[in-house]
Specification:
Elements: H1 2-9, E1 17-22, E2 25-30, E3 47-50, E4 53-59, E5 70-76, H2 79-92, E6 98-105, E7 107-116, E8 119-120, E9 127-131, H3 134-148, E10 154-162, E11 165-168
Antiparallel strand pairs: 1-2, 3-11, 4-5, 4-6, 7-8, 7-9, 7-10
């Protein structure tokens, strides 16, 4: 005897919906926050976010007077792939003892070198930094470069982002 009353209370609406309307006009609306889509079925994801890696490699023993060989990789599927590509690029630039200086994922990175846009100060320390945004990474690299080099000028010599990518199913 209680079953028919329950059906009337729902106003003949499907599960997850409630009756709306009045004065002879009636309809059904989804219950807010019910977490279901049409026909009471939960929505399914249509893809996934994939991690992307970046890396920066530099020559640890540059020849005197030669520019510092630097290699970089962005948007790689693994840390290993990003590091390997950065090392290859460093060697192509003439690096003899290339080492990965920074590997990062789903972020941005920057390198700041001591000196100004007209030239790098010999013997200074370059700084690599990573952060959520490109501007944050550049700011951190310049700030830390100035601290490491006695407050002198520093300029960004490289910056890039390797952000996660959405892949549809």
């Amino acid at each position: 005897m209680l079953v028919p009353f329950a059906a009337l209370a729902e106003g003949n609406c499907p599960p997850g919906h409630y009756p709306i309307g009045g004065q002879g006009v009636q309809g059904c609306a989804p219950i807010p926050g019910g977490g279901t889509g049409a026909n009471g079925v939960s929505p399914r994801p249509t893809g996934k976010w994939e991690t992307r890696w970046g890396a920066i490699a530099e020559d640890k023993s540059p020849s005197p007077g030669a520019p510092l060989a630097t290699g970089a990789a962005v948007s790689q599927k693994s840390k290993r792939a990003a590091s390997s590509l950065a090392m290859d690029e460093c060697r192509k630039q003439g690096g003899n003892k290339c080492e990965v200086r920074l590997a990062y994922y789903n972020q941005c990175a920057a390198i700041a070198d001591p000196g100004t846009s007209s030239g790098v100060i010999a013997g200074g320390t370059s700084i690599a930094a990573h952060a959520e945004t490109l501007e944050q990474a550049k700011g951190l690299a310049v700030r830390d470069c100035k601290q490491a080099n006695g407050g002198g000028d520093c300029t960004v010599s490289y910056s890039a982002c390797s952000m996660s990518e959405f892949k549809s199913f």
